[in-house]
Amino acid sequence: MNPVDWIDVTTEKNHYSLDHFVVPDHYEEDVSSILIPHGVIMDRIKKLARMIVDNSQGPLVVCCVLKGGHQYFADLVDEIKKLRRINGTSVQLSLEFIRVKSYMNDTSSGGVKISLTDAELQEFKGKNLLIVEDIIDTGATMVKLLDRLALVEPKSVRVTSLLIKKTYRSNGYIPDYVGFAIPDAFVVGYALDYNEYFRDLDHICVISVSFKIIWDV
Ligand code: 5GP
């Protein structure tokens, strides 16, 4: 993907005040600003769905990377279902769920655990896969997942991530379809969590320093 194809929200001027949007009271003290309002996320997903459908051939196995990717996956699949290819054909979808765990608190644990057995992975042989992830940070999780998937020889593998973090820790991996490039900060909301908190927040927000201090002691 060409970096100009994603929306860059890495600078301070991209942050919205909490007063400008509705944030549940139980999170008002815990986030410092809104980085991507829910409506902008939804509009961007329409465009990503259009790009995916335009570049797709044959039936598509859409794989949700749990847990953080579930909201993006649900909204993306809804949009893809509404669309047809340029030649007028509809896109046949099947849905799969992969649990991948790599983080404790807000730091990488180094290891990546994938929930599927070798037999379950074999189901992907010869299929067109679309992997749906919430965020690429270092890129380590996705590279490990792709290495594992390559062993079962899918016909094609494309990856979409709603977010990519601009960080010096990146291994250089860039997905095929990216929604937004974000700053090197820990973000929550739209199903992205901090120790299971904030999954019920609609906007993508930057966590407040005070919340982190309370959790990290
Ligand atoms: P990576 O292997 O690319 O460093 O990390 C990918 C995974 O780390 C994501 O799937 C996500 O679970 C978690 N992660 C990385 N950065 C963030 C962040 O800013 N917020 C949240 N909630 N999770 C993150």
What would you call the structural class?
A: alpha/beta
Record the strand order, biggest sheet.
1-8-7-6-3-4-5
Bound molecules: guanosine-5'-monophosphate
Shape: globular
Individual helix count = 5
Kindly state the percentage of residues in helix: 10-25%
Q: Roughly what is the average pLDDT, rounded to an integer?
A: 89
Cα Rg: 17 Å
Alpha-carbon distance between the two ends: 40 Å
The share of residues in extended strands comes to 25-35%
Topology as H/E string? EEHEHEEHEHEEEEH
What is the makeup of the main sheet?
A: 7 strands, mixed
The count of DSSP E runs of length 2 or more, i.e. the number of strands, is 10
Low-confidence stretches: none
Brief summary of the model shown:
With 217 residues, the chain is α/β, with parallel strands linked by helices. The protein has helices at residues 38-54, 70-82, 118-122, 140-150, 209-216, and strands at residues 7-8, 31-36, 60-66, 93-104, 107-114, 128-136, 156-165, 177-182, 187-188, 204-207. The strands form 2 sheets. A 7-stranded mixed sheet has the order 1-8-7-6-3-4-5, with helices on both faces.
Q: How would you describe the overall organization of this protein?
A:
A seven-stranded mixed sheet has the order 1-8-7-6-3-4-5, sandwiched between helices. A three-stranded antiparallel sheet has the order 2-10-9. It has five helices and ten strands. The chain has about 220 residues and is α/β, with parallel strands linked by helices. It has helices spanning about 40-55, 70-80, 120, 140-150, 210-215, and strands at about 5-10, 30-35, 60-65, 95-105, 105-115, 130-135, 155-165, 175-180, 185-190, 205. The mean pLDDT is about 90. Bound molecules: guanosine-5'-monophosphate. Guanosine-5'-monophosphate binds near residues 108, 134 and 139. Guanosine-5'-monophosphate binds near residues 68, 133, 136, 137 and 187.
